[in-house]
Amino acid sequence: MTDIEDVLARIDQDRDQTLTEFVRLLEIPSISSDPLGAAGIGEAAGWLKRKLSSMGFEARVVATEGHPLVLAHSRAEENDPGPRLLFYGHYDVQPVGDEDQWSHSPFEPKLVEEAGVTRIYARGASDSKSQLWSFIEALRCWREVQGRFPGQVTILLEGEEESGSASLPAFIEAYRSELACDVAFICDSDMWSPTQPAVTTQLKGLLHEKVTLFGPNPDLHSGYFGAVAVNPIRILSGLLAALHDSEGCVAIDGFYDNVKEIPADLRTQWQALSKEAHQLDSADLRGGLVEHGYTPLEAIWGRPTLDFNGITGGNQGPGERSVLPASASVRLSFRLVDGQDPADVREKFRHFIRARVPEGCRVEFEGSEGSRAVAMSPDNPFVQAVARGMEREWSTPTILKGSGGSIPLAEMFSDVLGIDCIVLGFILSSDAIHAPDEHYDTLRLHKGIRSWVRILDEVRTLRG
Prior knowledge:
Blueprint: H1 4-13, H2 15-26, H3 38-54, E1 57-62, E2 69-74, E3 84-90, E4 110-114, E5 117-121, H4 129-146, E6 152-158, H5 168-174, E7 183-187, E8 198-203, E9 205-214, E10 220-221, H6 222-225, H7 232-241, H8 264-274, H9 296-302, E11 305-313, E12 323-324, E13 327-336, H10 342-354, E14 362-366, E15 374-375, H11 381-394, E16 399-402, H12 408-417, E17 420-424, E18 439-441, H13 442-459
Parallel strand pairs: 3-6, 3-7, 7-17, 8-16
Antiparallel strand pairs: 1-2, 2-6, 4-5, 5-18, 8-15, 8-17, 9-13, 9-14, 10-12, 11-13
Helix pairs in contact: 1-4, 1-13, 2-4, 4-13, 5-12, 11-13
């Protein structure tokens, strides 16, 4: 077996070629939420399929009811007897928004030297074409130098992550035998800082609800009826105010019944990280509430929340209209933690609201199925192997962190495939993802590829 230093040397040698191909991928306008984006999606899928085929994979584009996926398998004769590895990434990107707000055309990648750093500006440069490109190039160089892949490798590249992944659940169920693996790497996450890598071991579940409160009347003149008739906005506002207590805790009966406390050793780590939580610097937290007894990072990563995302009712126009509206509505989201079942939370929430709706009013609910939280033990051997690999490349300990966000894919992989999911990546909060002037620096691209080689070296001796 050739030493991995030879693989790293190949990565260094091919650095310009790697960047040139990455630029070509960024030029493809693969916007999944744009009705006119099908051509770009198809072009990107075909381009990636050809790339993987040229590397020795058996690759194909798989049609779905939505956008296509790219599915690739290494050939049995070219696999080392290591673990079965599944790599996930998504090649679709966000819409560009107002192009006038971009300093450079979003699909004409531009390399810019800024403060000693070379950055590439393009939509998808960070989220998330750089992330899939990093593991693809690491696998290419590994096979070219070693002659084999470091185990049985499957690659799944999605084309509609940025538009809701509607086709993904059915695909995973239908192709579960082809996706069988010992561990899945979800490559769409962030670093702790520009110089310190991270593995996300805690992902929150997500539940959306829409509540519409109807009064017994159509719109009424407030001068005639304001003192006597029910006002759905007032009633709904009171219901929303009752959902939290004075310390910011959710006041729904039984909401915390199944919540698992953050493990003591993890709390110690997160409390220390809270002292350097630079990610929070981008928002003014004055007026917010942190649950009593928890640091901000513990609250974000390890405690459940309920938030109001939008409220409407009555006069929304530019002029005055003194009206008691016939209805009012609100959209809410729950971020759930390990132990909470979305269906159970939904039922308790709806019971809370129904029990407080006054006589003469009625309420309607809408909501999707929701997803559960995913928690990985810090002692998981794959987590430890990934942490060791990244530490070797970045020469600093790997942070095991949580996330206030949700990746439903992790739950799908866990439920359908019965495997662990390792969530990692090299995105930074300063990359302007989903915003104008999205960018990624070329050094991080290079070190991300090298990091994957270190990780592969660590995991190739493991079994699921």
